[in-house]
Amino acid sequence: MLELERALHSIELILAARYGDHEFAPWSGPTNLGELPPPAQQVVLRRVEEANKASQERAAIHFCLTSAARLLTVTQLLMTEPVYRSPEHHARRLRELVDEIRAGARSAHRAALMLLGQDAGLAGSVDGAAQQAAGRNT
To answer: What pTM was computed for the model?
Structure first.
């Protein structure tokens, strides 16, 4: 049990120290992109894309760690011997554990989608000006 507590604590420390929500904001580059010459636009667009990919990877790490923490918590709860007051209490506890397992699975699935660039939360990561400029130069 102590090993699970240590693992959970380690994950919580990593989440608190390295993967705050502020790191997931997409970078959009300069707002005057359309005024730049085409070679400069390409440089900016490449930097925006690189920054957004790095942000997606950091977000995926965050969701993987979040998933692991949820599942470790469920494991801890399953390994303890609960005192059931009633069959209803037992059923409620099982439903709560299943809900936590599902939440952990959703976090892991979202991490996978982020890595594939398919997460709806990150779909509009490059701003409209950058997309328009890219379209004019193709």
So the answer is: 0.66
